[in-house]
């Protein structure tokens, strides 16, 4: 007698999501899903609604519709409640505490945790993964380069031990060598630690090479969806976003 397993629900399910800043509506019924253990990327031109989508998931903007994380509704929750469920957000502009040291930034990242011995272990693991930060652990974040600040922002988010990491333009303003290093580390975090990721990235080629699934946004709506390979093969995506 054969048995079939029930279909698993996605880790993140966004359905009919709208979002607005005051009277200006930015998202118009965005729908997509992210499977546990995978990397999904949101592509689109500036103003398409990518950053707003991340903020809406974190309940940082006024939203309607449905955002379910592991089956739990996020719409109507406080941002801190979303974080407690295991969603960490690395915003554009990095947002490190520049007056604090690297080490202090990492400890602040673990402020919701109560397992202090494991916090210390995770900090050391961060330093193994990001040797540049280990060398500068007592320096103020303001003294770090742009690439080092991005590494610190990602590391601070990882100190929450998230199940889902939201990344907004991690390559912005960085030299190609540093971008390659950061994306290599993100791939390792996903494969080795099983951290799911939702990536917003202007560099469409980088994003599609890293991600498993992709969604293209235009003026606050999803207009194309598929695997990263499918979008890389799409003629309009290649012409507009990949340049060939």
Strand order of the largest sheet: 6-7-8-3-9-10
Q: Which term fits the overall shape? A: globular
Gap between N and C termini, in Å? 52 Å
Share of helical residues: 25-40%
Class derived from helix and strand content: alpha/beta
Q: Oligomer, anyone?
A: single chain
Tell me the β content.
25-35%
Order of helices and strands: EEEHEEHEHHHHEHEHEEHH
- Put simply, the count of helices is 10
Uncertain runs are none
Radius of gyration, taken over Cα atoms and rounded to an integer in Å: 18 Å
Taking all residues together, what is the mean pLDDT?
93
Biggest pleated-sheet summary: 6 strands, mixed
* Number of distinct beta strands: 10
Structural account:
This protein is an alpha/beta fold and 244 residues long. It has helices at residues 50-57, 79-84, 102-109, 116-129, 131-135, 146-158, 176-193, 204-210, 228-233, 235-242, and strands at 12-21, 24-34, 39-43, 62-69, 72-73, 87-90, 164-168, 196-200, 213-218, 221-227. α7 (176-193) links the parallel β7 and β8 (196-200).
